[in-house]
Automatic annotation (TrEMBL):
Keywords: Transferase. This is GNAT family N-acetyltransferase. InterPro entries: Acyl_CoA_acyltransferase (IPR016181), FemAB-like (IPR007434). GO terms for molecular function: transferase activity. The lineage of its organism: Bacteria, Pseudomonadati, Bacteroidota, Flavobacteriia, Flavobacteriales. It comes from Polaribacter filamentus. Pfam families: FemAB_like.
């Protein structure tokens, strides 16, 4: 495609490799895995169906001060299966009636964020910068980019996964006709600094939840858990991919299908900081977990599960406890479990952290209609569990 021309405040790149070492040094963003060129390159290399682009915002001295990751995907509205489906269906019917939403074509969606991981992983801003001003500059840069190549035919824009503390800044996007809406929360477990091992974690729980954890370990006792090396991946990827697809097909919606061959690059670049374990039963893979250690956090990524064996062997429950055991052993502060299966994650101690996305359709009439529907979208309610004893009453059972 013909690539976008630079402006006085923004530089545009079609690949991670095209961004110079000097820019990366000046940004100084790579201590965060999600803004590390090796992580971005691994995603980019293994997903040829997605158009990847990167925006560098610069100051008056042409110094880089912010970074944004862009992906352009084909999004099929019919794939949404959660409780907003009825709203989407109504919107779709209205849109098609007035010829503002294509009948069978996918929506060409420009995403600022990480398509495959929930969280604030799309925009990096250097310290001591005017963040509100830079969000406005980013919105202008995205519009410039979308208009630069008419062949792209971008229909809509999505800036994803902002925590509540960021909304004072990101609400500047409303001036650019973006509409905020809430999505499923990220489930986060904050680790107690007194937990030296998994037994300490269990000891902090109320009896009911401690019994549940021990039962899951008993049910899964026949399962063997193995570290996956880069060499193992060649033979194990087909089975792992099949298990991942089973999980992905149950998701409310996916912005894109993750190519598990990406793990080869991630293990090569991040070594022990990229977590990858397989679960075996009778010499067969019945599950896997993946995740990355990012600063003081363990971020759970994709899992694969043999659902036919899940209930009998408590595979998924065991996975959650294994993430916790890993994080404790590495003296981390938090685990980001992501935003699916919220209730079971709360039963192991995770709490919800709200996330907001901003959406804008390129056509103004469609955008105004969308606003009415997006205002009605709410995350699926769930029953929050409280598995830990009250700190003021350590004898609570």
């Amino acid at each position: 495609m013909n690539f976008c021309s630079n402006t006085n405040s923004a530089l545009f790149f079609s690949s991670v490799d095209k961004i110079s070492d000097e820019i990366w040094r000046n940004l100084d963003c790579e201590s965060n895995v999600y803004f590390h060129r090796s992580f971005l390159k691994a995603i980019e290399e293994n997903h040829p169906d997605i158009i990847f682009s990167y925006i560098i915002l610069i100051d008056k001295d042409k110094k880089p001060i912010a970074f944004a990751s862009i992906q352009i995907v084909d999004f099929y509205i019919d794939t949404i299966k959660n409780d907003i489906e009825i709203l989407i269906r109504k919107l779709k019917n209205i849109g098609r009636k007035f010829h503002i939403i294509p009948d069978k074509k996918p929506l060409k969606l420009l995403i600022c964020g990480n398509t495959f991981v929930s969280g604030e992983h799309g925009i990096f801003i250097k310290q001591k910068q005017d963040k509100k001003l830079l969000i406005k500059k980013l919105a202008k840069a995205i519009l410039h980019f979308s208009n630069a190549d008419k062949k792209l035919k971008i229909d809509a824009f999505l800036l994803k996964d902002f925590i509540n503390e960021s909304l004072l800044i990101t609400d500047e996007l409303k001036d650019f006709n973006y509409h905020p809406f809430s999505v499923e929360p990220n489930m986060v477990l904050t680790l107690d600094e007194n937990w030296q091992n998994f037994d300490d974690y269990l000891a902090s729980m109320k009896t009911k939840f401690r019994v549940k954890a021990r039962k899951a370990h008993k049910q899964s006792a026949a399962i063997t858990i193995e570290e996956v090396t880069k060499e193992d991946l060649v033979n194990q990827l087909p089975e792992m991919t099949a298990l991942y697809k089973k999980v992905a097909s149950n998701a409310d919606f996916n912005l894109g299908n993750f190519n598990l061959e990406t793990y080869t690059n991630l293990k090569e670049k991040f070594g022990e900081n990229y977590i990858l374990k397989t679960y075996w039963l009778n010499h067969k893979i019945v599950g896997f977990i993946s995740g990355v250690i990012n600063q003081n956090s363990l971020d759970a990524h994709f899992v694969g599960i043999d659902y036919e064996l899940n209930r009998e062997y408590a595979i998924y429950q065991r996975m959650l406890y294994d993430y916790i055991e890993i994080a404790i052993s590495k003296r981390l502060k938090t685990i980001n479990f992501g935003r699916t299966a919220s209730e079971i994650k709360s039963s192991v101690g995770a709490e919800p952290r709200d996330l907001t996305m901003y959406f804008r359709h390129k056509k103004s009439i469609t955008n105004r209609i969308l606003k009415l529907f997006l205002q009605r979208i709410q995350p699926t309610p769930f029953h929050q569990k409280f598995p830990f004893k009250n700190a003021n009453n350590p004898n609570e059972e």
